[in-house]
Amino acid sequence: MGQGDYRILHEADLRAYLAGLPDLKGLLGGEPAAWAITEVGDGNLNLVFIVKGARGGIAVKQALPYVRLVGESWPLPLSRAHYEYLALSRQAQLAPGLVPAVLHHDEALALTVMELLEPHIIMRKGLVAATRYPRFVDDITTFMARTLFFTSDLALSAAEKKEAIAAFAGNHALCKITEDLIFTDPYRIAEQNRWTAPYLDGLAASLRDDLELHVAVSRLKLKFMASPEALIHGDLHTGSIMVTDSQTRVIDPEFAFYGPMGFDVGAVLANLLMAYFASAGHERTPGERHAFEGWVLETVEQVWNQFARKFLDLWRAGAAGDAYPRSLFPGEKGAARLEAERQATMQRLFSDAVGFAAAKIIRRIFGLAHNIDFELIEDAKKRAVSEARAVRLARAMMAEPGTFSVIADVTAAARNLRDWMPELSG
Amino acid sequence: MGQGDYRILHEADLRAYLAGLPDLKGLLGGEPAAWAITEVGDGNLNLVFIVKGARGGIAVKQALPYVRLVGESWPLPLSRAHYEYLALSRQAQLAPGLVPAVLHHDEALALTVMELLEPHIIMRKGLVAATRYPRFVDDITTFMARTLFFTSDLALSAAEKKEAIAAFAGNHALCKITEDLIFTDPYRIAEQNRWTAPYLDGLAASLRDDLELHVAVSRLKLKFMASPEALIHGDLHTGSIMVTDSQTRVIDPEFAFYGPMGFDVGAVLANLLMAYFASAGHERTPGERHAFEGWVLETVEQVWNQFARKFLDLWRAGAAGDAYPRSLFPGEKGAARLEAERQATMQRLFSDAVGFAAAKIIRRIFGLAHNIDFELIEDAKKRAVSEARAVRLARAMMAEPGTFSVIADVTAAARNLRDWMPELSG
Hints:
Chains A, B: Homodimer. 2 copies of one chain form a homodimer. Chain A is of the alpha+beta class and 426 residues long.
């Protein structure tokens, strides 16, 4: 991986580096000395620069050899930039127009240059501001259906699938972050956990004592580790999605690997549900975000329903993979039986997505990495109320999966919890 | 893989080759010209030589670039010798004394030299002759429990596990044989299928029309392709086991890869069940093999029960892997809840093993590769009767898994079919 040539690029280095690349220099335009370079990375792991010249702009992402959120005490391999580039390239083929175009990749520097997404904003920020995104459902469901279907056993030969799994196997340090921070730490005493204290102290303790939940999350963890169903994005929250009214772009697939499809679908559902529960904490006058909240729950339903429909349509249209060979389902009766099995497969995938969504919610409230949906609720007590509602739903989704057989069961439960008042500690 | 240096070794080449390896030359003893070299390969894929010198003997296995059973029209990569060597080495660490010692490996020649197993015979031959093997249950269950547990997520970190999966990903040509010949072809018209015609013509047709079975076998196929639970042997039938009264050796792991644990366990159960049903076809006087048949069914029960006990004991003794972290199950209550989950895990594994066992039975009766348990029954009608009984059990095991919740359900069903008279075609 040429790690010997790696150095962290500061503004001046970056300017010189880009000036040496004719295509990018031309795209930016004007004199390099006049380029405006700003470091804007607000994620947990990397440096991100926006560079603007006389003609155009670009985004430059460089991996740091440690977790930015924590510091040098937590090293993280630069190779993640390689896997991100690999995933971006594959996603660009499978879901054209739904990921940023890659303009340049430098393996040694763990650096990728992408088109500048402008005026896109991070979707999570828009959701905090109660903005609705009319393209979102169609775009995100196309992204998920196509990237998951075409990298699964339904579309690949078993040989292609095994080679693809192996190509991402080295990204295990990023998987380990998920394994620890999502599937383990929130359920035990861990130094990095934090929550809205003291109000959620009791709830945090109850999760640590909830053995049914521990079994459920351990099953999900094992599924995450050992079910390479498809190339998943691996971190598909609303902070990894950039939007405008008319465009959607999925960014930051550095956690990509072959894992369970329900993890990506669950991530989207979870982050919408958190936006829903956080919304009450952001209202200045009662009911002012009512229409937005209705849109969010409708979006939750549409995300699942349209994803399922698109995934099924791809499968029906002609699956060239080694799973479920058509030759075993001849004639009308065979077609009908295969269709029933497709529906059963989607039901299992739904159940996985519900469980993973729950895990994603709980980690954002009790684990290391929180999100601005809740964090920007300044009144800690109000924040705790929103969080407790989300956790109540998540607990049920994870430990009583049988009570959620269709997506409307999830949104109905969320709606019922909108004004529920939890007992808080402290 | 240095395939450029590969050449098929004939007797004279092999003699010269071995003479050039001081350790092996010393082990064999005497003049190379005096060594007795015999080609004894009776498997489907490779050349196997036994070489005996004045002092000792060795077994030499060389992969051919095609499927021996079919010929040069069916090429097969030599790299399988590499994966076999890799698997043998790992199994030797994990289950010492239960695989042949590797004395030499030559990657370019796709050749492995092993200790000569003498006076061991292929277990399947012994079973045809109604021989009982008192060490078998203890040895095979130790082999399976240890090789499966210690390569699973219960014993490995997620990083180690992913690297191990990747190390075997290239063995997909061998997996493909299983995918096609076990999980697909027997259920559709395929040129290479054969069965005891005309007696089983009707049964063959009914399997091709049995859509419930096609769904069940397709689920098993997908599990085989995309559930890398542990390093499995991949071909653990009674022709891959060499035995004496006091020793058991598992050979030929060239199909090894990271797959579902139930596939290995199911293979052992399936081959014992076939020995049981074939037994009636080998008796010269009614009831003469009664005691042997009782031993076989008792062995079926013990294989599962002792495997499950040993696997559980390893798990209880201290699982260092990333799955089911102990820290989530503290105290007595935690320990009890984890123990219940262990039992539930074994129940899921049992269910997998029952399904895979069924697939292994059906492929030996309707697919390309048959076995001598049935093939040595000269009277075709008698053979068809034995086979039809086995298929009736296998059909139930695959399509009605809920009716088999403990291993005694399987042996009871087998016992009930011992004298059942099927309707034959022709």
